[in-house]
Design brief:
The radius of gyration is 25 Å and the shape is elongated. It has three domains: about 35 residues; about 100 residues, no CATH class; about 50 residues. About 40% of the residues lie in helices and about 25% in strands.
Length: about 200
């Protein structure tokens, strides 16, 4: 009797593990990898100056929704543009996302998630030709070190002005213009942070 109960326990445990693995596969892997019957994938290529941490398998987000992945990353010469990084993009559900992805959309490298995973973030844009099978220009991520350098320059200029500079000093105008540029950069950087 005890032997039969132990055998039933192990059969139940193995069966439960198989069911759990199948459930995890269907919940995580199937939607992420685009295994959807009757859905056509859409492919296009994003052109960047640098890869910025993108690699094969990096997620592609359309308006924050994971819609595809990076297929490959290669360096190629593009005629008069010189050597560029070409990022092959696969959008799993071309029927759903294809109409909103045009040449007017924004294709930016960004950081997402708690660990700052590098992703290709797409913000759908207005009317324009579709991107399927085409080369589109991408934008690099905001450089936080540049923002800090700009703020250091601005704060030094304001401190110099406050240390006895005459009113109307041209450094004041320059520092205010630098401050406006730094604020714009901080705004752009924070817009790309995960919410």
């Amino acid at each position: 009797m005890a032997r039969s109960a132990r055998a039933n326990f192990w059969v139940g445990l193995v069966t439960g593990a198989i069911v759990a693995a199948a459930l995890l596969f269907s919940v995580y892997y199937v939607p992420r990898k685009g295994i959807a019957l009757g859905r056509d994938e859409m492919r296009f290529t994003v052109v960047l100056d640098e890869a910025h941490g993108l690699h094969a398998g990096s997620p592609v987000l359309v308006s924050g929704i994971e819609a595809g992945e990076i297929g490959d990353v290669a360096i190629r010469e593009l005629g008069d543009r010189g050597w560029r990084v070409l990022v092959g993009v696969t959008v799993f559900d071309g029927e759903r996302f294809g109409p909103m992805l045009t040449m007017a959309s924004t294709y930016a490298v960004a950081q997402s998630g708690l660990l700052g995973e590098t992703v290709l973030a797409i913000a759908p844009g207005g009317a324009g030709p579709p991107v399927a099978g085409k080369l589109v220009d991408g934008t690099p991520p905001t450089d936080f070190t540049r923002i800090l350098d700009d703020l250091a320059v601005v704060s030094k200029r304001v401190a110099d002005f406050m240390d006895g500079r005459e009113p109307g000093d041209p450094n004041l105008k320059a520092s205010l213009l630098d401050l406006q540029a730094a604020i714009r950069n901080v705004r752009d950087f924070t817009a790309n942070l995960p919410r």
